[in-house]
Write a structure and sequence with these properties.
By secondary structure, this protein is mainly alpha-helical. It has a single domain, classed as MetI-like fold. It has eight helices and no strands. Helix 1 packs across helix 8, helix 2 crosses helix 4 and helix 3 crosses helix 4. The longest helix is centred in the N-terminal third of the chain and has 40 residues. It is flat. The N and C termini lie far apart (52 Å). It is found in: Cell membrane. GO terms for molecular function: transmembrane transporter activity. It is a multi-pass membrane protein. Belongs to the binding-protein-dependent transport system permease family. One of its GO terms (biological process) is amino acid transport.
Length: 216
């Protein structure tokens, strides 16, 4: 077996298209996961059972079912109910929704980690409940959980190949399509594997540096 560098050159245009799609899905999915996760975390702390219980059921269901099953459901079942989205939009929503249930737990841990004295000080100052959350609690809680949130971004990157199952041509999807057309498998899959490493490893180092900085 020999490594054909000319095949790598032929694959690069498709590869870069796949990288762009992967990064789009990752960025948009992360925004959904972070925003929706915070909503879940706050809703689970609600004093109203009518709010807290349904959110708990939804998050537990999503967290304990496979991402691939959720993607199939969104892409193939939702159109039966009149909701039709493109493959990329479905993938972004699927990634964001799935990981929002994990980021919700991260936010919950961060909120629980805020010292009780901070709540008491806000009460002593007669701060409104909304102001207490936005000015006192959430800034401290989010600062504590930034590294953990970053780890989930890396996990989303590694799960992005699942989007190919619904027709999204991200990096692995482009590699599989190129392989089926040219019958060359070693080169495209090697390039994709190296690309994941090149993207994920520096991100891991950055997160470690950020964690050390925030811990000071």
């Amino acid at each position: 077996m020999t490594f054909d560098w000319s095949a790598v050159g032929d694959f690069l245009p498709a590869f870069f298209r796949g990288v762009l799609v992967t990064l789009q899905a990752l960025a948009l999915g992360s925004l959904i996961a972070f925003a929706l996760g915070l909503v879940w975390a706050l809703a689970q702390r609600s004093a109203r059972k009518a709010v807290r219980w349904p959110v708990t059921v939804i998050t537990e269901f999503v967290r304990n079912t496979p991402l691939l099953v959720q993607l199939f459901f969104l892409y193939y079942v939702m159109p039966e109910w009149g909701v039709t989205l493109s493959a990329l939009a479905t993938g972004v929503i699927g990634l964001g929704l799935h990981y929002s249930t994990y980021t919700a737990e991260v936010y919950r841990a961060g909120i629980d980690g805020v010292p009780a004295g901070q709540w008491e000080a806000a009460t002593a100052l007669s701060l409104p409940r909304g102001r207490t959350w936005t000015a006192v609690i959430l800034p401290q809680a989010i600062r504590r959980v930034v590294p953990a949130l970053g780890n989930y971004v890396i996990s989303m990157l590694k799960d992005s190949p699942m989007l190919f199952a619904i027709g999204v041509l991200e990096m692995l999807g482009e590699a599989r399509q190129f392989s089926s057309q040219t019958f060359q498998t070693v080169e495209p899959y090697t390039v994709v594997g190296v690309a994941f490493l090149v993207i994920a490893y520096p991100a891991s180092l950055l997160l470690r540096a950020l964690e050390r900085r925030l811990a000071r």
